Amino acid sequence: MNKDQIKKLQKNVGVNSDGFIGRDTFTALFKKLGASDVRANELALAANVHMRTYKILDSANRFVHFIAQLAHESGNFRYMEEIASGAAYEGRKDLGNVIAGDGKRYKGRGPIQLTGRANYRKYGQALGFDFENHPEIVAYPSVGMLVACKYWSDNRLNELADQDDVLAITKKINGGTNGLADRKAHFAKLKSWV
Fold it and tell me: Which pLDDT does position 171 carry in this prediction?
């Protein structure tokens, strides 16, 4: 994102418009989107580091697509764990849920709603956490933000954001098109802020 886009975002979220995105800007953004004060601070701490590492801040499109998708997945950053029980994922071999109880144990968590034993194992191993034996860790906002950034990068979603392809991004995150209209609405709102 360039300095002018950052200043516009800062103005829209109500912080000092200095053109340098950091923890205060992220905290204000997450609060404005619906996160509690505590959750906004935790998400901001991680976003300030990991969104840079995974090159999500390299362009406004990447930033807006990323935040829009996460806003949809997490109910505007209010939920770091899926509200449903996870029973619908029971026996889903495509998610690696092969042991009785896996559906509930590996239900969606974090702002991107990581789902399924296979994903918990994959991202835990990649990031140095034991998510498979301790899936609840993904629901910690700071850890969940790291997982979201890694998932975004691994699935080459920066490239799809560069192409402005909300449909393809949605399919990579959701496996289908659930909530597409809401995702587009989040995108349009956030795009107007930068």
Answer: 97
42 lies in which domain range?
A: 1-76+142-194
Please give the pLDDT value at position 167. Answer: 98
- The CATH code of the domain that includes 100 is 3.30.20.10
Q: Which residues of the chain have pLDDT under 70?
A: none
Q: How far is CA 97 from CA 53, 86, 88, 105, 129, in A?
A: 31, 11, 11, 9, 19
Residue 20 and residue 2 in contact, taking contact as beta carbons nearer than 8 Å: no
Q: Are residues 71 and 103 in the same domain?
A: no
DSSP bridge pairs for 109: 81, 114
Asked if residues 106 and 131 have their Cβ atoms less than 8 Å apart, the reply is: no
| 69 shares a domain with 128 | no
pLDDT computed for residue 77 by the predictor:
98
The per-residue pLDDT for 177 is 96
